[in-house]
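Why run this: before we spend reagent on co-expression, it is cheaper to look at a predicted model of the complex and decide which construct boundaries make sense. The entries below are exactly what would go into the expression plan.
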Amino acid sequence: MESSPTTRALPGAPDDSAAATPAPVAIWARALCKTFQDPERGRVEAVREVELHCRRGEIYGLLGPNGAGKTTTLRMLSTILAPTSGTAEIDGVDVVEDPLEARRRIGFLSTSTGLYPRLTARETLRYFGKLHGIGEGPLEARVEELVEAFDMGAFADGRCEAFSTGQKQKVSIARAVLHDPPVLILDEPTTGLDILASSAMIDFIESSRARGTCILFSTHIMSEAERLCDRIGVIYGGRLLAEGTLAELQERTGEAWLDGVFKALVREARGEEPAG
Amino acid sequence: MTRPPARAWREVLRVELLSLLRDHRALVAGLLLPAVLYPLIFLGQGWLEKIGEETLEAKEVRVALELSGAPPEMAARLVDLLEQRVPIVLDELPAGSLEELESSIQEGTPAAAQRERDLAVDRMGEDGHLLLQALPDPDVLGRTRFRLFFDGADDTCREARGRAMESLRELQDELEGAVFSEHFGGDPALRWTSESVDLASEEDLGGVWIGRILPLIAVLVLLSGASYAALAAFAGEREAGTLETLLVQPVPGIAIVWGKFGAVFATGLATLGLNTLSLFACVALGLGSLPGAEGAGAGPGALRILGAGLLFLPVCLMLSAVLCLVCGKARSFREGQHYVMPLSLVAMIPAALALSPEVELDPFLACLPLAGPSLAFRQAMVGGLAPWPAVLAVGSTGIYAWLALRKVGGLLDGERVLAGESSAAEDAQRQVQSRAALGWGWAGVFAVYLVGGLLQSAHALWGLVATLWLILPVMAFFSARGTARRAGESLTRTLALRLPTPWHLAGALLAAPALARLAGVWIEWQQEVLPLPSSMTQGGGLPALFGGLSGPALFALLALSPGICEELFFRGAVLSGLRRDMPRWRCVLWSALLFGAVHASIYRFAPTAVLGAGLAAITLRARSLWPAICLHVAYNGVVVLRGLAETSGADAPLAWTGEAWVPWLLLPGIALLALPGRREG
Amino acid sequence: MEPPAPPGVWRATWWVARKELATSFRDRQTAIYAVVLPIALYPVMFWLMIQGVLLVQGRREHLAVEVGVTGVERVEPPSGLAEALLRPPREEDTPANTPEGEPLERLEATWLEPAPSLAEAWERELSAEEPELRQDALLFLAAEGEGPSRIAYDSTDTRSSLAEQRLRKRLEAFAEGRREAAAEARGLDPRRLEPLAIERRNLAPDEEMGAYILSILFPLLLVVMTVMGAFHPAVDLTAGERERGTSETTLILPIPRVAVHQGKILAVCASALLATSLNLLALGLSAGHLLEMIAQGKGFVIELPVSALLSIAPLALLFTFSVSAILTGVAALAKSFKEGQALLGPVQMIFIFPAMTSMLPGLELSVGTALVPVVNVVLAFRGMLRGDSLPLEYSLTALSLLAYAVLAILFAVRVLSRESLGVADETISFKRLVSLLRSAASAR
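The model came back. Tokens follow.
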């Protein structure tokens, strides 16, 4: 993976000048807000002033309970939703100004990203490949490469509606990385998967990092976050309560385990007890 | 503390109705809208027609007149009459300006017709609508002939023609009166002219139109409203995944079903009531007049409407039950919709019988689902409902409703429901052969009806030959090939072309004349209930159609060919596919249905269906196609040749087939056919 | 690594359309409803109609009616009247008897006791003790040399109406016979009793007549078929996608939202076209029989005007596209198949109601009506079928269709694209829609 020319010093971003040639920032968000107008509940602030960044070859975990705003944040970053205010960039492309360009640089996967039931696995990959602008020859080669890599040969010509969960997961991942994106955004990627499939997903995430992809994923499973993430952001009630490496968070809250860290941060946010 | 079952179904009913009522958007679209729309459409029709008429009447028409061929007083009187039909503009053409037309008219060739057109249009002028010519009648001395030239494809021209015709008829009446006075001192047959006086009561008249259209509207509206509730109660519950939860409640499944059925029934009734109200409201507010009821007062009394409406209660029960059955099978709303649509189409047909005033309620129709109550309702609205047909209609519908309700009771059997997903798919897998065969069967029926019909209307003889020897064999081949492939056997085996046993052949030959004779008896009896119209009995039938063909040729065409080709397709290819994964009795039933359908006539349906059933049974028993072919050829042969002999009056070669003892041949025939076939070798 | 160059909007649209069509028709139920049902429906319907007509005809011919003949004084049956009443006047090619020799369309005349007036005679009948003995109609003869006689009947009763019809016609024929006899007795040519003859000459060639008849119902039929053909695919491709859980997948496609939406519209359009063409084909094939039956009664031959049908094809195509755009746009607001159907139901009505104006004989396509939606299309179809040359009006109609389609697409893309509707859990409510429209409008 060649390095991107984007290497800016961003206001508010941690100072990496001390490290040797820090990897370029692939995702950054500043003051990201999303407000919904619900006819019954009125104005709902789903995401408030979220700021984060993630570099190439880094895994950033967004941690929080359901309804915290993780999914909304990720959707804004992947251009599915438009932010009410704030900015974000994917690999140097502004998601508000040029969402199309941004989408071309993202591989997005979530539990609600289904597969077209009546297409076969190969057809699905070809379809997405074409829409990404990959030429016919290279596309065929790439599709076969992925079929081989994910061991889909046995069912690649079957319709997606007939697949097991594990098979669907493989196809979904293949689809997400088909165009070799520099950024992967994964929304609760292991929810609903059994042990084997979960493990496969984790392996995939790790290998993507090894290839230099920037990975932003959300989860509410603490053990996953502990194992995978280089940096963790804790989100609650639409706000990013804290972010940093696991060690930094542990130090800040004085808790050894991540779930303790999380609870401490939430208490602090609620104004109950000061952390630390 | 468990609740007694009796309360349980009420709870289910309450919850179902509550969830229905809370879905505002769908409530409006599914219930309110049809209730309001259908009457609007029907009434709007009448209103549109009225507007159309009035617009035309207000249009100015231009008529070119050349009346030199008529006596001057007649011409002048006609002009007076025409001028009364304003707005109208009359252009008088000079005498003799239409002479050239005569030769074109006499010639009668297409080229002449074109010339006539051009000439007439030229004389009328660009904005002329009608050309009216008077000339002495060539056939009758002293009579005047009036020719109207007009463009039948133009509305204004037709209007002009209409006005001219009115004037001419008025003139005719006047002149006729004058002629009678002159020669006979009045109309010699005055006593035999007639004036019709309608002595129907006002209330009866008011009920006529309603009685005709309300059954159809009611059925449509019932279906749309109740189907909505049925889909939500069954398919919707499945889709939402809440069915399983419901089934594990300590409540008998039957209570749940009754509760849901109650919701469906109540919704149907409510929709029907709403609809009827809106219809009457429209009429009362003058938003649309009921055709035929203008000036007939307020229409039928409320009591009569109520009474007639009660006739529809069992219909509502029956339809609700059927909808529950249909929607109970569906696994999603979408799938359920796909089942409901054909049901609505099918249900419309018997209800539409009430539209035709010529269809009378008789015991036969009274027992037909939906048709009976619809006709009874119509009769009730005009005050002419006899008790006996009413009882039959209500009673038969009640029985159908009860039969359906019994099946509804078994709908929510836990195992069926939970096994639903996978077993449905498995079933589909397992029934591949019979489904394919059935598809081919129906395709064959349609191909024969549509394509074969087209071919035969182009050329009776060769069309029939093509249908029998081209369409059927080709379809048989492809169908059988598919079956053979799936079963991994040869084509000849699939088509059961192996040699039959001699006793089966003998049985077939014995049974054929007996069946033919019995069919004759049936047709005679059928005449009582289903009399053939004269348009079908005239024309001399088949011999006239294929006039000129010799006996052997007719036999080959009408007996041998159908015998071979139809059997090849229906009992060879289709039956072979059906029997792979369908119980025998079902195969026989489908065979009967398909065979009856392909002959495309309600008059021939019964005998051909029975024949089809018999042929299927024989083929299954004998495991060979040849006995069926034999029987079919012999049967057709007997029927055709006897028919021929009767019309031509010749000494029938098969006169003995009309004897009384012939039907008894069926017994030994069946006995022989019932013997087992050859062992599988 | 720079991602590869993206496809253009139109190529992307094309690919999306192809994929949507492929997946639509792989669904067995869609295939059945789009292909099998249109082909099967018309033959079955027409066959049923024909059989229904035959059934009614057969029963009517075999129905014998009873008529009572009475008058103020006792009436002696004049010679020939009873026989004249028994069976219909002989026409060529109509058998007078059943194959067994029974007269068809029987009318049994019974001579009754005199009554002071028609009304009283009728009352007497109605109050007869046994209903079976009641007469279906009454003929109250005028006195000798007077007239006309009167027929009393009940129009709400089938048999009574039939009795009145038969009685009237047979009396007319009997009267005609009497007049001819009277004329011959005086040495007059009976034909002189009709002082004038009327001959109608329809100048329109058969094909034009066929086109005219077609133009009465066809435009309405075409509109209804197009709307119904586009309905199911529209809901399936939009709300159905939400149900299948692939709406998010579609939203992350690296192509402009407009391309996605247009692709769906194209797919809906193609499905609608297929369904409509199949409908028409089946209609044409099976209507042949029915048209023949109708034509026999009227004495002219109907030919299907192929060239006229071809002439309306471009406008029909444009209409299909317009309808597809509108229906797809509306259906996209729904979250599930069920709601999509509920939404589209009323929308269908909006199309079908105005389409009924095609049956108004007086209405014509003008510059004014060319701008009224749906009405302009049906009137244009009608005009084209009849060969009316109205280039300005047709162009206006075409332009308006295009305008509506574009508006629908713009509406859908603007409101749906970058909002949470794409992944919403609920069908949009009217209030929300209005506020969205307002914000979308002001955002520009």
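The mean pLDDT of chain A is 85. Chains A and B do not touch (no CB pair under 8 Å). Bring this page to Monday's planning discussion.
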